[in-house]
Amino acid sequence: MKKKILVVDDETRMRILLSDFLTAEGYEVIEASNGREAMNTFCSMPGIRLIILDVMMPELNGWQVCEEIRTISDVPILFLTAMSSENDEIKSFICGADEFIKKPFSPSVLVLRVNALIKRIYGEEDIIEKGMLRIDRTCNMVWETHDLIELSQTEFKLLMYLIQNEHAVLSREQILDNVWGFQYDGTDRTVDTHMNRLRIKLKKSNHYIRTIRGIGYMFEVM
Amino acid sequence: MKKKILVVDDETRMRILLSDFLTAEGYEVIEASNGREAMNTFCSMPGIRLIILDVMMPELNGWQVCEEIRTISDVPILFLTAMSSENDEIKSFICGADEFIKKPFSPSVLVLRVNALIKRIYGEEDIIEKGMLRIDRTCNMVWETHDLIELSQTEFKLLMYLIQNEHAVLSREQILDNVWGFQYDGTDRTVDTHMNRLRIKLKKSNHYIRTIRGIGYMFEVM
DNA sequence: TACAGCTGTAACAATTCTGTGACAAAGGTA
DNA sequence: TACCTTTGTCACAGAATTGTTACAGCTGTA
């Protein structure tokens, strides 16, 4: 699924410019022409990954919108401003901005910084591909070469932990701590049972999960 | 009804390329190989929603066509040009262009920009089609392959929210906030009940609404 | 008033998930 | 081989989640 970016600017031309470049880069752009509209859109549309916010706007200005957003969300915010005083920059960071770009700016540089920011904040991609497996972290779904595999929450978390530690041998204790949590105090044979269930569901790719006798398990695509 | 796009270029290869990509995207493409033909076609065929115009053409060039079109219509115009000087870009905007793409370009990027331009100019569709569902937002009516489905207000709003967030997993809390409003403070099981009512009414298409156990619901046409 | 449709809630049913124990199978060693 | 350790597999009971239904309150209308 495309990552959504909310662009907030009262100038139509600026919204169009940003929208074009970001859309071409593969983002889904949602536009708002003022602070009030931005707040409404942000609250009603889930999954917005980044807000690009003009400082100078009528009614609510950028800083005010930023403060209001910060009361409900930690979504990354990138400020766009025509002014360039150092105070403004400091003010932006104080009220919770993650980036700050001065107008005029080069659109391609802005795209680069947007990409970098999103990668920095969200880290991994939403879609992970390993061998014949495709995993969508946003909706807990896994496909094995086009076939949807339905995993329970525990199985999904277990698979994610294995994949994130590919090539590493993981003890049952490590797995329990990270998938079940430190407070868990059951048998470590529970891990074996779930590993078995996972292997059954990963029909063709179950050999990715290897047993390391005497130690634990390891995920490896070969 | 499909949206008509007039593609004007003297190179046959280019017309075919554009026509293929835009047709695949669901547009109806009308071709013209020079400025004069473009003017004639535009005047004789009503309902053209966008013109893609090559700048370098024999007889009437793109800018001249654009100026002539602008005397009779505000239809959005997208320029395509092999040249890349900043002056040309400025000249294009002055004579009334809405977009400007330099050759060579990626056809899929062009399609994205065409979609964005049309959406921006004409706004959202009143009629939404998803799989076997047809939804008219102006009168809150829904059809499932010719059969009218009578939904209550809540059910309609719920369906719209699901469709507007297709492919996204929505938690019960998100759904309550957006369909019922933030001030609502009942059980989140209300969502389940309404989801059930919706599924009963969407007889043949109720599998579009998927339960994501432990998380919430997701709308997806497959 | 009577009535019909819509809504939210609670209760119960159905389904799915989870951890555990028991036993089978496999691996390793003397 | 015999023996012990480790892992795989399965069944089951209880927990958690979701589906479904009934019902009471509410609204607007005839």
Tags for this entry?
homodimer, 222 residues, alpha/beta, Rossmann fold, Arc Repressor Mutant, subunit A, 2 domains, five-stranded parallel sheet, four-stranded antiparallel sheet, 8 helices, elongated, DNA-binding
Task: Report on this structure.
The structure is a homodimer of 222-residue chains. Chain A is an alpha/beta fold and 222 residues long. The first copy, chain A, has two domains: 4-122, Response regulator (Rossmann fold), CATH 3.40.50.2300; 127-219, Winged helix-like DNA-binding domain superfamily/Winged helix DNA-binding domain (Arc Repressor Mutant, subunit A), CATH 1.10.10. Chain A has helices spanning 12-24, 35-44, 62-70, 86-94, 107-122, 153-164, 172-180, 189-201; strands at 4-8, 28-32, 48-54, 77-81, 99-102, 127-130, 133-136, 141-144, 147-149, 169-171, 209-212, 216-219. In chain A, helix 4 links the parallel strand 4 and strand 5 (99-102). The radius of gyration of chain A is 22 Å and the shape is elongated. The structure holds a DNA duplex (30 and 30 nucleotides).
Beta-strand segment tally of chain A? 12
| Silhouette of chain A | elongated
What is the number of helical segments of chain A per DSSP (H or I, 4+ residues)? 8
Number of domains of chain A: 2
Radius of gyration of chain A: 22 Å
Helix content of chain A: 40-55%
Describe the strand arrangement of the main beta sheet of chain A, using strand numbers.
2-1-3-4-5
